[in-house]
Amino acid sequence: MNKTIITYLILLAFVFLSCKPKQNMVYMSQHNMEQEIAQAKFQGLHIQESDVLLILVSALDENAVKPFNLNTVNRVGSEAPNGVNQYVQPSEYLVNEEGYINFPVLGNVYAKGMTQVQLKNDLESRLKRYLTDPLVTITLKNFNVSVLGEVKNPGQKESATQKLNIFQALSLAGDMTDFGNRTKVKLIRTGDDGTDQVINLDMSRSDIVNSPYYYMKQNDVLYVEPDQNKQIQANSNPNRALTFQIIGSVLTAAAIVISLTR
Fold it and tell me: Which residue numbers delimit the SLBB domain (predicted)?
C-alpha cells in the first residue's frame, strides 16, 4: 500500500514539475486608475513614401474639373444626352522617394509627412486658382499592417478603417495564442527619417490606451513574443516531450502492477 502511494506521488511530482503556470493571460490586468482617465488621441495617419493615394477632385463646373481627374469613364444612361454620360473615379497617385505626387496641372506636390486633411487643404488651396469651391477627397489605398509571432493567424492584414488600435490589429490575426507573452509585444515602425523603430509594449497594463503607439500606422509590424514555456519547448530536445510521456506511462503501469499484487 505504501509503495502504491509513493509511486502515485512520484507520478504527480513529474506532472507538476513539468508544467509551469501560465501568467499574464488577461489584457490590461494591471490597473492604474489615474492613467485610465486619459486615452491616446487619433491624430490621423501621416503619408509615407510608397503610399498610394486615391484622390478625387470635384467642383460645380464639371467641365472645368475634368483636367484634374485622370479617370473619366463613359457610362450609358437613358437620361444622358445621346444615351451616354460621364463619371469620374478617384485617381491613383504614388508618393515617390522624394515625397512628391505628380498631380495634373499642378505638377509635383509634396505629400510625405502630411496627414490626409493637410494634403486635402493644400490641394484645395492650389486648385482655387482654376476652380470655384473645389472639393478634394483623399483615401489611402494601401493601409496594411503585419501581425506576426504567437497569434492564431499571422500575416499581413488589410484594415477597412484607418483608425486601428493595437487590440484591433490583434483581432485581425485571430488574437494571441495561449503561448503569447502579453508583456512583451514589439511594434516595428518606420520613422519619418526612414529608420525602423522597435517599441516594446506591455499589453497587460491598462494604461496602454494612453500610449503614443496605441494606434497603428500603415506598414507597422506587430510581433508577439512567445512566453517562457514556449521558448523552453522550442529550445529543448525534440524528444523531451516523448521521454516524459514514456516515463509517465511506465510509472502508471508500475503503480497498477503494485496495486494488483499487494
Answer: 145-224
Closest CA to 44 of 101, 96, 118: 118
Report yes or no: 205 and 36 within 8 Å, Cβ to Cβ.
no
Report which secondary-structure segment, H or E, holds 35: helix 33-36
Query: Cβ distance 176 to 25 under 8 Å?
Result: no
> Domain 46-73+89-140 sits in which CATH superfamily?
wza like domain (3.30.1950.10)
Domain ranges of the chain: 46-73+89-140, 144-232
Q: What contacts 119, CB < 8 A, 6 or more positions away?
A: 47, 53, 109, 111, 138
Q: How far apart, in Å, are the Cα atoms of 21 and each of 13, 33, 80, 144, 178?
A: 15, 28, 72, 36, 12
144-232 in CATH: which number?
A: 3.10.560.10
Cell for 175? 488574437
Say how far apart CA 46 and CA 113 lie, in whole Å: 5
C-alpha cell at 101: 505626387
Average pLDDT estimate for 78-88: 54
Residues 189-243: pLDDT tens digits? 988 777 889 999 999 998 899 999 999 999 999 999 998 776 666 565 555 555 5
Provide the grid cell at 144.
Answer: 496594411
Spatial distance between the Cα atoms of 174 and 169, rounded to a whole number of angstroms: 9
Question: 155, 156, 172: which is closest to 164 by C-alpha?
Answer: 172
